[in-house]
Amino acid sequence: MSVEERIITVENLSKSYHIWSSPLARLQSPTYRWLANQPLLPTSSKQLLRRKAAESSREFFALRDVSFHVERGQSLGIIGRNGSGKSTLLQIITGTLQPTAGQAEIRGRVAALLELGSGFNPEFTGRENVRLNASLHGLSPAEIDARMEEILAFADIGDFVDQPVKTYSSGMMLRLAFSVIAHIDADVLIIDEALAVGDVFFVQKCMNFLHRFQERGVLLFVSHNAAAITTLCQKALWLDAGHLRMDGSPKEVTEAYLEAFFESDARDKLGKSKALAVKMTSMDATATGTVEAATTPTVRRDQRLLYLNQTQHRNDIEVFEFDPKASSFGVRGGEVIEVVLEDGEGQSLAWIVGGEIVRLKVRLTCADDLTHPVVGFYVKNSLGQQLFGDNTFFSSQGQDVAAAAGTWLEASFAFQMPVLPPGDYVVTVALADGTVTDHIMHHWIHDALAFKSTSSPLRSGGLLGLPMLEVSLKPVPAPAPSMELADT
User: Which end of the chain is more exposed for a tag (fewer CB within 10 A), N or C?
Assistant: First the structure.
């Protein structure tokens, strides 16, 4: 797109602060600088005072030389650890903070949800704060009156709307704040982790609104949740200690961020203790149940597929070979050697059908002694969205699963393959070692195994289709009339 289509332009943006050595130094420094500018003092004294003023503080850069742009119709995700400069960047973009150097330019009306309660008066009622907050975003009194009922209906906080905001919970505050910014016709919407405090029903309502908003506006979404960024955004930035570490597709950026996070975490733990301990933190979001040994039917695979093959809308899935050279990271106290999908008879599969029972096998070797090895997997789509997965942690509780150096391991996951919409999919596999609260990642392979869904399963919907054990439609006897209906 042309420069005219750029809604947000950030060029060489920097923001620095003075960090004082002590409260006394903060008071003395202006005095030193004032004295150093007095014309009657000798040059040597002026130099001494300026040196003392400079030594009393150091310059800290919350942002340093950050540049990017967002075009009309794009959504940008910003990811980074605490203290990386995300909130500082958003405050400069919204105009609540001035940069030390560089510039940030926005075209159009901006609505921001940076901090719960910002723009609200705690003594005012919810209804009064709607008027206050909407007017701060540029709406006229007539526009606010016209949209008041819609705003309150979206917030859905009942009679509390006429109570002081200081009595609200954080969830109620979010409902009111988000409802306002959803109804002010903004061109740019900025959200900074605020949705983390919402209940699941309201967060789902917010997500539905954000998907509709993306059709007409620009979204800046800051989150630690990589899955949320890959779901909502077309572009992503990774901020690290104030620097723009990487920008690109959400899948590439979030994978690089997670890799750096786990490697840094592993270095910290290895430096503190020789005892390796692990939890598959990245796997726990979807792995909440015990991995049980699935009972594979004893009939042959061609018989199992008889029903699946009876329709022209069969979901054919092509399986590619394990790629040992796929992007990976970890401390390599153990290593993934092979990942394969098999049928119930142990035969490697080159194609499968959605709804078929399959077994994912992961073979590994241990270079070091592992006290509690844990193996897990994710299945992700081409956008990097995590569809499903599991790990071996819960199934191994109460068992002695320690593996000595030189041991070979095999993890097995039997499941019914979901019905997949057409597209490309990958299996991410990881090996770790330790407990549920402390972990080291030994080997993580982003795209260990790939497969491709090549047909259009009309019976499925959403990101994947859950194979049904039974689907039926039949006539049933009408219920007998109730006594009340009979009396009338």
Answer: C
Residue (of 192, 13, 181) closest to 90 by Cα position: 192
Question: Quick one: 185 and 302 in the same domain?
Answer: no
* 138, HSE (Cβ side, Cα atoms, 13 Å): 11
Which CATH number characterizes residue 427's domain? 2.70.50.60
Do 122 and 172 touch, CB atoms closer than 8 A? Answer: no
**Which residue type sits at 105?**
E
The structure tokens listed for 404 are: 């000595």
Residues in the chain: 488
- Tell me the three state secondary structure of residue 169: coil
Q: How many domains does the chain have?
A: 2
Residues 322, 444: Cα–Cα separation, whole Å? 14
Distance CA(443)–CA(455), nearest Å, equals 33
- Among the candidates 198, 224, 254, a domain finishes at 254
In tens digits, the chain (488 residues) has pLDDT values of 455 678 899 999 999 988 877 777 777 777 777 777 888 778 888 788 788 777 777 788 999 999 999 988 889 999 988 888 888 898 898 888 899 999 999 888 888 887 766 778 889 999 999 999 888 888 899 999 999 999 999 888 888 989 998 998 888 888 888 898 889 888 898 887 766 666 666 777 787 788 888 888 899 988 877 777 887 888 999 999 899 999 998 888 988 888 887 766 665 655 554 443 433 344 444 444 433 333 433 344 555 455 555 555 678 888 999 988 888 888 999 999 999 999 888 889 998 888 889 999 999 999 999 999 999 999 988 777 888 999 998 888 878 789 999 999 999 999 999 988 888 889 999 999 986 667 789 999 988 998 888 765 555 567 788 877 777 778 889 888 765 555 55
- Which three-class secondary structure state does DSSP give residue 134? helix
Residue whose token pair is 């019914």: 416
Sorted by sequence, the CB contacts under 8 Å of residue 61 that are 6+ apart come out as 14, 15, 16, 242
476 domain residue, yes or no: no
Enclosing domain of residue 90: 3-254
**pTM > 0.70:** no
CA 352 – CA 236 distance, rounded (Å): 34
- CB-based contact 1:72 (threshold 8 Å): yes
Residue 139 lies in a domain: yes
Burial of 331 (0-12, 13-18, 19+ CB in 10 A): buried
What is the Cα–Cα distance from 163 to 147, expressed in whole angstroms? 20
